[in-house]
């Protein structure tokens, strides 16, 4: 069979290797290609990389490739679809705008505490096709699934977890409705004996769940799974106490509540496993990650905060006076609500950077916030300026509310440069 793999990022590389191992004739098609291809894999590179694409027996779409670039009636699949169709174990899929990685990690942590064998992949960890052949029927696979992976999915996981869905990626989608619709396949193709766990407070998540034939398990409701007084509860029963929750922020409490709701039946309501799994959680890299304390000032890396909504959550997680570092590429999102949150928060200083710093500044002025500074320099320059301003007891918080592609390879590169700049302050 002739297989065309469109795009050669992380999932494209996994797809090429997967179909090549199975003896198929694989061609990687991409506008540019910087990686060297393994022996036996052909390439078609350049502006005409999609010409004649319908001549292939199978077309594998990578997440960054819009489906409308490919033949509408062609034999098109994806890494996500192939995995869901062939995985012998139970798959738990998690989507939402933010919090997916933390929720996936918490689900896996609780299940492992209960003695289950768990593999994690998708948008976090290893591409699932890399370990498909190693999955046993009794194993559980937890997948973080983005809108890019779900937009053309025709298969849903047995357990779908839908966190809050809020505006994002408007630079890629034609409009907000398309972005919302791209999340829906996580539950749209479930069966009646499947389960959809969803944020009952979020209208989009609730709408996605209502369209699924699966059993619905809401969280965020008083008579079900919810967070109250820093605890995770099911109705009036406390499942995980405040002292056993190590992550900061109400948003992380919601993520952990979603994880508990997703696995409660799978661990037979074992509160020891729930508590042990939650208690062992630590901040993931670039997600409200404490970097360290220098001369009484704490530095926190929240580089994965690429939307105004997540930066609002980060601000709320730290009541201390803050030096807040904002900016990057906005993805077409509005900063109005973030500016209003900043106006009422304990912010000692605002350092704006990146391509959309002027747009953020305009939103701040509209909210009558005029004490900000645009820093046009490297991450080291920004961190040094933050250190000059901060006082003992303050938090220097990198929570950009923007994507990183204007100046960095990705959010991880941005976060790593922040960590390195903070470490340089110790010298």
Automatic annotation (TrEMBL):
Pathway involvement of the protein, from the record: Cell wall biogenesis; peptidoglycan biosynthesis
Subcellular locations according to the entry = Cytoplasm
Q: Where is the Mur ligase central domain?
A: 94-263
Q: Where does ATP bind?
A: 96-102
UniProt KW ATP-binding keyword: yes
What the entry lists under Pfam families is as follows: Mur_ligase_C (PF02875), Mur_ligase_M (PF08245)
Tell me which positions the record assigns to the signal sequence: none
Enzyme Commission number, as recorded: 6.3.2.9
Cross-referenced InterPro entries, in alphabetical order? Mur-like_cat_sf, Mur_ligase_C, Mur_ligase_C_dom_sf, Mur_ligase_cen, MurD
- Domain Mur ligase C-terminal residue range list: 286-402
Which key words tag this protein in UniProt? Answer: ATP-binding, Cell cycle, Cell division, Cell shape, Cell wall biogenesis/degradation, Cytoplasm, Ligase, Nucleotide-binding, Peptidoglycan synthesis
> What GO terms in the biological process aspect are recorded for it?
cell division; cell wall organization; peptidoglycan biosynthetic process; regulation of cell shape
Q: What class of enzyme is it?
A: ligase
Its domain of life reads Bacteria
Molecular-function GO terms, alphabetical? ATP binding; UDP-N-acetylmuramoylalanine-D-glutamate ligase activity
For this UniProt entry, what's an example GO CC term?
Answer: cytoplasm
Its recorded reaction(s) are: UDP-N-acetyl-alpha-D-muramoyl-L-alanine + D-glutamate + ATP = UDP-N-acetyl-alpha-D-muramoyl-L-alanyl-D-glutamate + ADP + phosphate + H(+)
Record's function text:
Cell wall formation. Catalyzes the addition of glutamate to the nucleotide precursor UDP-N-acetylmuramoyl-L-alanine (UMA).
Question: Which PANTHER family does the protein's record reference?
Answer: UDP-N-ACETYLMURAMOYLALANINE--D-GLUTAMATE LIGASE
Its family remark reads:
Belongs to the MurCDEF family.
State the name under which the record lists this protein.
UDP-N-acetylmuramoylalanine--D-glutamate ligase
């Amino acid at each position: 069979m002739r297989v065309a793999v469109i795009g050669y990022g992380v999932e494209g590389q996994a797809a090429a290797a997967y179909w090549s191992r199975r003896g198929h004739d694989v061609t990687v098609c991409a506008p540019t290609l910087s990686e060297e291809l393994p022996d036996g894999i052909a390439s078609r590179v350049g502006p005409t990389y999609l010409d004649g694409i319908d001549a292939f027996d199978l077309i594998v779409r990578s997440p960054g490739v819009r489906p409308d670039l490919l033949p509408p009636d062609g034999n098109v699949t994806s890494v996500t679809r192939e995995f869901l169709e062939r995985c012998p174990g139970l798959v738990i899929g998690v989507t939402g705008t933010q919090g997916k990685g933390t929720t996936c990690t918490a689900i896996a942590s609780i299940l492992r505490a209960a003695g289950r064998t768990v593999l994690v992949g998708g948008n976090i960890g290893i591409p699932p096709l890399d370990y498909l052949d190693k999955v046993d029927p009794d194993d559980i696979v937890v997948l973080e699934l983005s809108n890019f992976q779900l937009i053309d999915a025709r298969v849903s996981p047995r357990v779908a977890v839908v966190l809050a869905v809020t505006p994002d990626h408007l630079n890629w989608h034609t409009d907000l409705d398309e972005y919302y619709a791209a999340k829906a396949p996580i539950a749209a193709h479930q069966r009646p004996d499947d389960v959809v766990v969803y944020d009952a407070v979020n209208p989009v998540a609730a709408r996605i769940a209502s369209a699924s034939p699966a059993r619905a398990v809401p969280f965020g409701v008083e008579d079900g799974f919810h967070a109250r007084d820093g605890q995770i509860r099911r109705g009036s029963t406390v499942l995980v106490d405040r002292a056993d929750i190590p992550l900061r922020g109400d948003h992380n409490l919601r993520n952990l509540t979603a994880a508990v709701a997703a696995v409660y039946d799978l661990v037979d309501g074992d509160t020891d496993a729930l508590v042990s799994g939650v208690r062992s959680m630590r901040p993931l890299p670039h997600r409200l990650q404490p970097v360290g304390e220098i001369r009484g000032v704490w530095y926190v890396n929240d580089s994965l905060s690429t939307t105004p909504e997540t930066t609002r959550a980060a601000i709320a997680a730290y009541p201390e006076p803050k030096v807040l570092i904002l900016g990057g590429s906005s993805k077409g999102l509005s900063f109005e609500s973030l500016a209003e949150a900043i106006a009422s928060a304990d912010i000692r200083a605002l350092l704006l950077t990146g391509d959309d710093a002027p747009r953020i500044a305009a939103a701040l002025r509209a909210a009558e916030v005029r004490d900000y500074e645009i820093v046009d320099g490297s991450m080291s320059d920004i961190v040094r300026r933050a250190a000059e301003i901060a006082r003992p007891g303050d938090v220097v918080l990198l929570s950009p509310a923007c994507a990183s592609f204007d100046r960095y390879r990705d959010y991880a590169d941005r976060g790593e440069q922040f960590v390195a700049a903070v470490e340089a302050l110790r010298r």
